[in-house]
Specification:
11 helices, about 325 residues, seven-stranded mixed β-sheet, homodimer, 12 strands
């Protein structure tokens, strides 16, 4: 197995992605290699810092970089030798089984759609965000930002994507699906969710019904579906609250001299634990990490990528989505 | 001044509203009276618990109760002798200057619109949620749930309502307004926010531009505008995360024996501090409290109501909104 990692993506590239890749090779079990995609000299300098030499690590040159504020679709066309485009292409050419990047979300999304294509019946993929919860498992919320204006049937598609992903990757037989809404009653909601509720009821998914903002943290659902606007706001808000709380507690602990186990608290709220957001609905494995992600999150993203490839996630998705497309569901 | 408090509203009525009213009379400064609206016998029993007798507290009988799951608009029509309808009517008849309830949000909203009417140019009021932030002031987010499907010009109206409310009540000269969105760049957003951005730029408000989910907690804005669907999800999510964090910290402190100042941490995240959500855009002062609100929040809602009445908030809103309606803004 071979995982491509964008060495040029993120606020602290190439240092962070390179270190994350090195940690993955060091710490993760499994028969896999890593391809670091980007400027060879810059990557080598970083590898030198880690005094790392391994026959399981290869550099794949890419001379261009798509910046965070470059227009996503246009820069994917204009920069064919960028680390994002090259990295995604490695899957198409069979040289890699997955791609991980902490670069521009829009560009990763555009490159994945252009190069790999979408799965049967999927017009546009969704970003799945794994949210830490009070339960012993995260909740997969999708869409977290790829589709800011959604029609009701898109939310049903998100539900199917989330269902298959969680069933295959987390080995939960019948993942329960919630529709993010402003009240638990079926008559609550906006135009989008009222109709999506009706459509979700008609599926054979394990549909729990409406869930509210307060149900996210409890881990009541395996999968929460929402439009990409709401999902993006919730995701960014969550991360900021978690970060702020950690700051607040540690400041307080320092002031009072309290010997509080900050780590155990913060771990619960730590998005880096889950390593990144899988892009669901494309014909391949792409995982999007935060721009300011630490090496740990890159390592964990490699773990998720390995699991996705080993479990044959894309085949599962393709087969089941084809079935749904044929029955018109 | 006379503040009407719905004695029958909320999960622990009449105990909590009655205690909150008693605390308000005890602890808040100012020349005001409270009218407790509801079942006189039940209210008297509660007052007896507090051994309270005051000539500043009166009981206004209302024999019906609108339950949390009653259909809001229909029950406002069907239950004219409910504590919510009677409480709102006290403003219309000049017997009270404000109304506070922890009952059904939908019913409070419907009764306020039917009985008091809306201000010039406002077709439907917005719920303003005061969110605790890392800064030394809360952020007013609106709409928090009254308008789940919004057209762009409604967001502009929310911005004006929020601007006037914060300027008058918090004495901030030129409150800065943010548009909740999925990115800070002007070309980011869904159909709603893209157009709302353009419209907000044309106003003479202190418009900061787009803000993201992560900007809520920082207190970067005095006012954040969004559709009522997104606002409701964010509000409920925020409250649940705050509650969960408090639980997590206190459990951890108990286990490790850490002497952490839980109170100071939780206060930062404590929505009860702000006493409730003002309903903005109606011709009166209505403040909506949480169903599971503690007495403290009712007391603080009385404080906010007093401030709203003293500052002539409704007159300010009426005058400025009339001006805007005339200039077609």
């Amino acid at each position: 197995m071979r995982i491509a990692v964008d060495a040029m993506g993120g606020d602290h590239a190439p240092a962070v992605p390179v270190q994350g890749a090195v940690e993955a090779l060091d710490q993760l079990e499994g028969d896999f290699e890593i391809a670091l995609v980007g400027d060879p000299d810059a990557i080598r300098r970083e590898l030198h810092v880690h005094r790392y030499g391994s026959d399981r690590l290869e550099i794949v040159p890419a001379r261009e970089v798509i910046a965070m504020d470059d227009p996503p679709a246009a820069s994917v066309r204009r920069k064919p030798d960028s680390s994002i485009v090259r990295g995604v292409q490695l899957q198409e050419s069979g040289e890699a089984d997955a791609f991980i990047s902490a670069g521009s979300t829009g560009a990763i999304l555009a490159a994945s759609i252009f190069v790999l294509g979408t799965l049967p019946g999927v017009s546009r993929p969704a970003i799945g965000a794994l949210l830490p919860t009070a339960a012993d498992h995260p909740t997969l919320m999708l869409d977290a930002g790829a589709n800011v204006d959604c029609k009701p049937h898109r939310l049903v598609q998100f539900a199917h994507l989330g269902h298959i992903y969680v069933r295959v990757l987390e080995a939960r037989e019948s993942p329960c699906i919630g529709l993010l809404n402003i009240g638990s009653e079926r008559e609550k909601g906006n135009e989008l969710t009222l109709e999506a509720f009706r459509l979700l009821e008609e599926t054979d998914l394990n549909f729990l019904g409406n869930v509210e903002g307060r149900d996210i943290i409890t881990g009541k659902c395996d999968v929460i579906v929402c439009d990409g606007f709401t999902g993006n706001v919730v995701l960014k808000f969550y991360e900021s609250v978690a970060g702020y709380m950690a700051q607040l507690i540690s400041r307080n602990a320092a002031e009072t001299g309290a010997n509080i186990d900050l780590q155990s608290i913060c771990r619960v709220l730590d998005y880096t634990e889950f390593g990144g957001a899988p892009l669901l609905g494309i014909n391949g494995v792409t995982i999007i990490c935060h721009g300011d992600t630490p090496p740990r999150a890159i390592r964990n993203a490699v773990r998720v990528a390995l699991k996705s490839v080993e479990s044959g996630m894309v085949n599962h998705l393709t087969r089941e989505l084809s079935g749904l497309a044929q029955t018109g569901a």
